[in-house]
């Protein structure tokens, strides 16, 4: 591992511990030349996941984009960031564990709505209104009625 301070290529691991429920490993290293310490993170390389958009274009799955959409839906709501990050991790893990390397944006959106429905119903309705492109108040009311029916 290259030292970020002096550029030397030799370092030793001083401490190592799992983070993100074992998904990554945090390592404290010490440069063999300048003796400065730095932190590295190690994670399993995942296969690329491609999202097929509504217009049939393809782009790489971006967890930050998904988290950003969920954050916007939760604006001014009492939802901790950690809860949304965990939900994003779960969605990404679900997609990665499937045998498909290509997934539709519809599937990603449906998974996000499922998680938001569990986390915060107002955020769920906000996300659904953008994702499903509610055209008028009737479409909005239909979704609210479905939400109310599922609660009973």
UniProtKB/TrEMBL annotation:
Please indicate if the UniProt record lists Cytoplasm as a keyword. no
What NCBIfam families does the annotation carry?
A: transcriptional regulator NrdR (TIGR00244)
Q: Name one GO biological process term.
A: negative regulation of DNA-templated transcription
Q: Which organism is it from?
A: Ethanoligenens harbinense (strain DSM 18485 / JCM 12961 / CGMCC 1.5033 / YUAN-3)
Q: Which purpose does this protein serve, as stated in its record? A: Negatively regulates transcription of bacterial ribonucleotide reductase nrd genes and operons by binding to NrdR-boxes.
One Pfam assignment: ATP-cone
InterPro entries the record matches? ATP-cone_dom, NrdR-like_N, RNR_NrdR-like
The answer to whether UniProt assigns keyword Transcription regulation to this entry is yes
Similarity comment: family membership: Belongs to the NrdR family.
What is the UniProt remark on how the cofactor binds and its stoichiometry? Binds 1 zinc ion.
Q: Which domain of life is it from?
A: Bacteria
Name any cofactors this protein relies on: Zn(2+)
Query: What gene name does this entry carry?
Result: nrdR
Q: Which PANTHER family match?
A: TRANSCRIPTIONAL REPRESSOR NRDR (PTHR30455)
Which residues belong to zinc fingers classed as unnamed? 3-34
The record ties this protein, via HAMAP family, to: NrdR
What protein is this chain from?
Answer: Transcriptional repressor NrdR
Q: Which GO terms describe its molecular function?
A: ATP binding; DNA binding; zinc ion binding
Q: Which UniProt keywords apply?
A: ATP-binding, DNA-binding, Metal-binding, Nucleotide-binding, Repressor, Transcription, Transcription regulation, Zinc, Zinc-finger
Q: Which residues form the ATP-cone domain?
A: 49-139
């Amino acid at each position: 591992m290259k030292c970020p301070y002096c550029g030397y290529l030799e370092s030793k691991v001083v401490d190592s511990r799992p983070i993100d429920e074992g998904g990554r490993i945090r390592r404290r290293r010490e440069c063999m030349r300048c003796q400065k310490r730095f932190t590295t993170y190690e994670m399993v390389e995942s296969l690329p996941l491609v999202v097929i958009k509504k217009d049939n274009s393809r782009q790489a799955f971006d967890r930050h984009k998904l988290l950003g959409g969920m954050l916007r839906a939760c604006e001014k709501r009492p939802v901790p960031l950690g809860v949304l990050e965990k939900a994003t991790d779960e969605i990404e893990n679900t997609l990665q564990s499937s045998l498909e390397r290509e997934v539709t944006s519809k599937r990603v959106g449906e998974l996000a709505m499922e998680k938001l429905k569990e986390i915060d119903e107002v955020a769920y309705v906000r996300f659904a209104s953008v994702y499903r492109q509610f055209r008028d108040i009737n479409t909005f009311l239909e979704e609210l009625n479905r939400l109310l029916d599922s609660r009973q």
